[in-house]
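pasting for ref. prot 1 ->
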Amino acid sequence: MNRTAGSVDAAYVDHGSVPALGPVVSMLLWPALLALLSVLGSKFVQALGLPFSSGPRRRRLPLPPGTMGLPYFGETFQLFSENPIDFFAQKQKKYGPVFKTHILGCPGVMISSAEGAKFVLSSRADLFKPTFPASKERMLGGQAIFFHQGPYHSLLRRLVLRAVSPEAIRHRVPGVEASALAALRSWNGRLINTFAEMKSYAFEVALVSIFAREEMSVSEELKQCYHQLERGYNSMPINLPGTLFHGAMRARRRLQRTLSEIIASRRQRGVEGNDLLGSLMDPSQALSDVQITDNVIGVIFAARDTTASVMTWVLKYLADDPKLREAVTEEQEAIRRSKREQGEESLTWADIKKMELTTRVFQETLRSASILSFTFREAVEDVEYEGYRIPKGWKVMPLFRNIHHNPDLFPEPEKFDPSRFEVRSGIKPIPLFQSPNPEKRQGMISSAALRPTFQATPKPNTFLPFGMGAHSCPGNELAKLQVFVLLHHLTTKYRWSPADPQSGVQFSPFAVPMDGLPIRLSLKP
């Protein structure tokens, strides 16, 4: 057969006597190709939020306003390569408190009102399931507490709380204090990157809470694996050599092997610890090794960077306000003097409860810095909210930062003001009787008919640093403990000051002061 040079005929293969296979292959592949296109088409339609059914109700409800960005990548680069704070603020200003977007490979809706956060996380939590982007879910492990609801989630939450509830951690004060003192000694006389060092300190506290003392010999291996793993947390789920995601998944396998060895060793020794690992290994609960390791990794994830960010911001805000810093130092000095008068040195849980001003500084730091800008949920069915349709499968993200910086909820939100969290008392008059005449009602109040009132700020459901509802963070008391213990010894025993007091913010991915807040630190004379 004569053919023009360079032409291609997919239906013709000249291998001697071998028959042409092109038509046969085409007949076999076309149905598969059409099926694939159908699936991809349905996914594309779903990503756009277009309804599959033609019911009149679904046609009437529009998607929230907003933009979806580039195909697949969406607006991920805008969110993480620029300033996320500006990203949220600009979106809210342009589209209102409910808007659509597309980040980390997921179409979603962001909600910036306190009422919306309550709707998603509490009052109608049945319409949404906890979730993360695919990359983060694969790195943390599908059996981790974050991704479940119902009986399994309740079981995990009970086991975690058993190890990190106030009753449990009051006995961990000595271990946390030892970690804090060791960290401060290692920083003495140095210029440190506060955020980096606080991450190491928070990691040590997490390990102290999870493992027994004799298991801490592998802490360096765990640190190295986790450091590699965390680099891929906000990466796209592209598992190709050279990508952050690929490196993170390799580190996760190493981390899981190390944890499995610790679990096997503890079982072999017949040890039943009162730490988190012991709680998860409770024989009566029969969790598998995969379930245990996924939740250990999840707890480290939840405990490390967020707590380190909070501690870094506490020091930043104290450095910016010398009078507040002096007041916090005096509160801590008073506790130290009181303990010395009693012949004691080490902190106790009772000492932590006395730190009232420090508590307000901690709370205002959580509000002002808003370390967790948002959280993820996923609609389990088509949901109507504020006249818009949130399609099934879309991510829903309550924006904590926008709520915490709403001037209607927190006047002068950019001002760092711990007094927002004071409980204010007052006297409310009780009328002796009700008269239909407003003029006669005025002034008819007896001094005996007065009752004390207490106004706690902020308003309910507006301060959400640890989330809300059944999936609120169970480890908030442990985070508070390690911040307070470190701050006590830092303010009473060390001089410290920022090396470069600039006011910028960077994201890694959590908001932290510029360059991790370098500080110089030395023992007081």
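and prot 2 ->
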Amino acid sequence: MFPLPCRAVTEFPHTCIGCSLRFWTGPLPISPAHALPAKRRGKVTPKERRDVTCRGAADAGSTAAFTAGLRTASLRGKLRPSPAPASPRQPQAPVAAAGAVPGRRCSAQRAASSSSGRRAPAPPSPFPPLPPSAPGWARPRQPGCGVLPCRAPCAMDWQVLTRELSLYLENQVRVGFFGSGVGLSLVLGFGVAYACYYLNSIAKKPQLVASNDRFCRFLEEYCPVVTETYYPTIWCWEGRVQTLLRPFITSRPQVQYRNELIKTADGGQISLDWFDNNDSSYYPDANTRPTVLLLPGLTGTSKESYILHMIHQSETLGYRCVVFNNRGIAGEELLTPRTYCAANTEDLETVIHHVHSLHPSAPFMAAGVSMGGMLLLNYLGKTGRDTPLMAAAIFSAGWNVFESIESLEKPLNWLLFNYYLTTCLQSSISRHRQILEKLFDMDLVMKARTIREFDKQFTSVMFGYRSIDDYYEDASPCRKLKSVGIPVLCLNSVDDVFSPGHAIPVETAKQNANVALVLTSCGGHIGFLEGIWPRKCTYMDRVFKQFVQAVFEHGNKIFSI
């Protein structure tokens, strides 16, 4: 913005536009080379006419003066110098300025032919007169001058004017926005408002749902993270964002596996990746070293970042881990035309009994993630107390498959997750096309664009279900939760698009003393990012570490539940 109206323009409204501009931007250098030579007076080029034109004032008090000056300076593209003063001895009529348009009179001629013959006095100025020594002082209009009243018509270098105006405006913006504190105030105000919203609506304590007071007290004492406020990453707390960013943000600890292939009753094979942790200082005896069985998600393997983090947490505690890879997705060949699903627990039963038989004296528990958690819950609901597992931890399980599929088929969720997972499923079976095409129309399976279409054409047919609805009903863990017979801790986020909050069986969990639900307001699906840069540890990792340690070291306090 410009300062107050130009004093010279207000007091002397007919001064040269270039001279008046000094009152707006300060003294500007005017090259004398731009003064019009005598032989060219009255013949002004367009460039010289532009040189004497300046920007109008934003203030209403000087707008009229600038407009009048611009109109006068551009009248028919000609500049008129001030005429020579009349001789005092012999009065003469006012002479038109050089270059005047024939048939028109200058202002002095019009004043001379008026009824009074004298010029009307100018209205008094509201400002005191400026001294001639003041910067930017302009001489008042002389009687009898031409259209352009300044005695010496001048023009300004347009490049110099542009540069000076640019520097002036940049300085004004810099001082006005930052120097005055306006920008800082806006930033601080927005930051305070966002911080208040984050602390009031985003960062909350998780909801702990458990019907057994003894189990609750056990968790509060030995797994206090379930009662602490969960602070999601402040710049990516939304569920979809956490789900998408977790694989790229979190680190991937280096883990050396020992692979083992075990045979199944139907002639197939299962790949197990062992982390023996032989360097454990807490449990140097391998026979009594606690063992954790890990079950990855739908298309996950032992290389998933969340599995690697769980193994890293177990390593610090001195435990041994073994990862159960579903058939055909860890690089091994399919020996039979059968893969896996969330409802069939035969392979999981085989793995659990195999691991327990190798280390019968070692404490043994399991942890499942996403579909691995669904499979583990279905197994526990089927076996009840008849299992070698001491306890189990479930993360981001889909409780009701119907609700999960419906949520994933919404347009945005289909674009972000459903289509990608479908292509991953197709890729996992395309390697085994030769053995699978004996029983399935693989061309039709590869045309599926949703998980529902894939399950309808492939999964439900493979495991003998009459319809896709029968398979989804059998795969939903919420129907078997009442039959779980060992302590189970389940972590879910209510903004998980894979397991919507309204589908979490809160009331059913309250009817089983062995089940405890931990529900966070944010976290997404296997996200649970926290901290400014959540690379090394997530909230899910901390829950896993504390609960596993509590079971192995203080499990006798909950075994009698």
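The first strand starts at residue 207 and ends at 210.
Residues 1-42, 52-104, 111-117, 141-155 have pLDDT under 50 and may be disordered.
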